[in-house]
């Protein structure tokens, strides 16, 4: 089997270059959880780079064959989950951490589906579609991270709240990156939202559109806050070090969404960043919150988007074209099966 120490070292180097915010939060975990988080991150980063033709999230290449990229990541993922080594660090890292923590393969499938949606140029039509997409690209990762932190795979409510945190993170990312996504030919704002405000995707970044666009950014911020609040309930159930790390990340990403909303029409003049002093402030606040006694009452998730709990089939090496939602021109809503796992992979 692949040498664990080598995989961990390479995964650590990947996160050091690929994500300052996640690297900062990961330092708060105990050593075992921290290393496992690095291993999982390396796979997520590799899949994202394959899908977008990037290197550690930068220097995107034009003309990427999305279908081929998805097929490759599915095949390598299936191989390592079957116990094979593929000689590709991020995928071998996933195989290792999946074995160590018994990560349900359904979460891995769900995350891969997010890359498939992007590769097909899919667009959300409704808020439900938006939240479904956020689950695939980030909420499923939240579920995997919860398992790494010791959450039982049958603890549905805590896993749902872990998914909520990923959804909150992704809503913050979408708000921050509207301009960058537009430049790359993408838009994650629901068609129904754009229609309500008289906006069209092509002219989204025009000066005349900025005031209405700022209203939508504030809407994303408010939506992210609801899911963040739910996630904080789940964080109370984690060991102290994990609770501290999760609450720190929640504070940092929440600050991104709030800052985008605060800047209004100027939010996309330059990329919103949370500096080191502010990150430290959020980490101190999270440490204090993590040390408080857990509340006895469970706050219901009434009205929140919820993943469908399903069986955990073996991940196949590829998926046929009819297992994915239609492409961009029709801007379809995701069907219930496609949204929650159905027959898509």
Automatic annotation (TrEMBL):
Whether Transferase counts among this entry's keywords is yes
Q: Which domain of life is it from?
A: Bacteria
Region (Disordered) residue ranges read 313-345
Top-tier EC class: transferase
Q: Name one Pfam family in it.
A: SQS_PSY
Q: Does the keyword Transferase apply?
A: yes
Entry protein name:
Phytoene/squalene synthase family protein
Provide the alphabetized UniProt keywords: Transferase
Q: What is its EC number?
A: 2.5.1.-
Entries under InterPro entries matching the protein: Isoprenoid_synthase_dom_sf, Squ/phyt_synthse, Squalene/phytoene_synthase_CS, Trans_IPPS_bact-type, Trans_IPPS_HH
The record's annotation in CDD domains points to: Trans_IPPS_HH
Q: Which species is this record about? A: Sphingosinicella rhizophila
- One example GO MF annotation: transferase activity
- What PROSITE patterns is this protein classified in? SQUALEN_PHYTOEN_SYN_1, SQUALEN_PHYTOEN_SYN_2
